[in-house]
Specification:
The protein has 276 residues and is of the alpha+beta class. It is 47% helix and 21% strand. It folds into 2 domains: 155 residues, Jelly Rolls (Sandwich); 107 residues, Arc Repressor Mutant, subunit A (Orthogonal Bundle). It is built from 10 helices and 10 strands. Strands 1, 2, 3, 4, 5, 6, 7, 8, 9 and 10 form a 10-stranded antiparallel sheet that branches. A hairpin with a 6-residue loop joins strand 2 and strand 3. Helix 2 packs antiparallel against helix 3, helix 4 crosses helix 5 and helix 5 packs across helix 6.
């Protein structure tokens, strides 16, 4: 399996046997993840040290005794905090990998998790074993078996039904309209005043509504849209500079800064991994 060595003693690669599955081995001594979300379903296991993270309006710790799980598009952030080092292994399942897993497990709907951290030693070991087997890439049958068993156990033990949206109908419509404007005009220099005027809200009301509906501030949400747009452009073969401008970033360095803060790797590292 081809892998790309990254700075900070970390590695990121795509599994060629499971479409939509990527893996990361991160070894950080000083890194803060800005508030962000992933299109992918994320599972992370700490090998040494730890970090602090925030999600669902709560702060918690990433440590060796904790399995972290984030639903697709679920906002979260992280920082080194109390630890001087954080070594962890992560799985990223985009929609194609999620569908593959659903078929293998016989699921009709995508699993949803109402918590982000689980203290489950057996499951932590299972995911560490799975990640190391995928890293070695020597036994496809063993990889597939551990993948199905590990995620099957996670879903069986800890998945729950998705809670309903608590926003009033009128606020739902306003939040949806703002998201639509951001998607259509993500490359423009949008302001809180412009966005608020579209739905009859002042900037303070807009920020509060957006936090309740999306879990992110308007700026953080717009940054996520721009990052996803840049990733799509890079996937089509665009240069990093062109992808940055097309997505709405001021320049290539701005894209690189936000990319690294959100995902722990640079656009160049992403491109190299995609090429391999």
């Amino acid at each position: 399996m081809a892998r790309v060595d990254l700075r900070n003693s970390s590695r990121y690669w795509r599994d060629p046997r499971v479409s939509g599955l990527s893996c990361l081995v991160a070894d950080f001594t000083s890194h803060d993840y800005a508030p962000h979300s992933h299109e992918a379903f994320v599972v992370a296991v700490t090998e040494a040290g730890g970090a602090e993270f925030k999600s669902r309006g709560r702060a918690d710790e990433a440590k060796a005794s904790t399995l972290l799980v984030f639903n697709p598009d679920e906002p979260h952030s992280g920082r080194m905090g109390w630890s001087q080092r954080w070594i962890y292994r992560g799985f990223y399942l985009t929609p194609p990998a999620i569908e593959t897993l659903k078929t293998a497990l016989g699921l009709d709907t995508t699993a949803y998790f109402t918590r982000n951290s689980f203290h489950d030693p057996d499951l932590i070991k299972a995911f560490l074993d799975l990640h190391r087997i995928l890293d070695e890439g020597n036994d496809p049958l063993e990889e597939r078996e551990l993948l199905v068993r590990s995620f099957g156990a996670l879903i069986r033990r800890h998945a729950a039904g998705e809670p309903g949206l608590a926003l009033p109908a009128r606020d739902q419509v306003k939040a949806a309209r703002i998201r639509e404007i951001m998607r259509e005009r993500h490359a423009e220099e949008l302001t809180l005043e412009q966005l608020g005027t579209e739905v009859g809200l002042n900037p303070f009301q807009l920020i509060a509504l957006f936090k309740r509906s999306a879990g992110l501030t308007p700026h953080a949400y717009l940054t996520q849209l721009r990052l996803k747009t840049a990733i799509a452009a890079l996937g089509r073969g665009a240069t990093i500079a062109a992808a940055a401008l097309d997505a709405g970033f001021y320049d290539q360095s701005a894209l690189t800064r936000h990319f690294k803060r959100a995902y722990g790797i640079t656009p160049l590292q992403w491109v190299r991994a995609a090429a391999d």
